[in-house]
Amino acid sequence: MIVAYRPIGRYPLYDMTVPVYGNYIADGIVHHNTFGAGGYEMTCHVTGMYPEWWEGKRFDRPVRAWVAGKTNETTRDIVQTTLLGSPHTIGSRKRFDGTGVIPGHLIGAITWKQGVPDLADTVRILHVPTGGYSTLGIKSYQQGRGSFEGTTQHAIWFDEEPPEDVYGEALIRTATTDGIILLTFTPLEGLSKVVLSFLPRDMRPYDPDDPDNDEQEY
User: Which residue numbers are catalytic?
Assistant: First the structure.
């Protein structure tokens, strides 16, 4: 891995870049808000506005994307606010004030989630290079694995570690689109199955329930 220092928006960020793929791990070398890094990258994908230095994944057309956090309330207060700003009412219409990472003039039609005040369900975002619109869905782990079924997605951002079944469902959603999943979290759960999935097999603790145990050496 190559350790690089690059600006992400207004925030300096140390990242470890994976050669060829251009993926990065927002590292703890300096203090920074990881949801800010996740929000910035998701903004690049839904708007198509990539900085010149961007070496990571690029989509050349409007995308379908999801963002999610632990609960409806934390998703609203952290993820939604980071991306879109705060809701406010103009006449009879509720809009976002555009103080998030996504520029306000690119925010199109909004559908609001029933039963959760000020939480959007889907938001249309102008994809600048093509003039089309990306679709941004807002979810939470609280809704359960079933709410992540059904449609293919190009990009999914999980803020805080998702349950294993939700993460597995997300992998299926991006399998046919050459899509990506972003995760921003501190592993407070320790070596959970989600965390272990990022380690090479020979670095994982012995698991008697792993069907590939006979292929592992300890």
Answer: 160
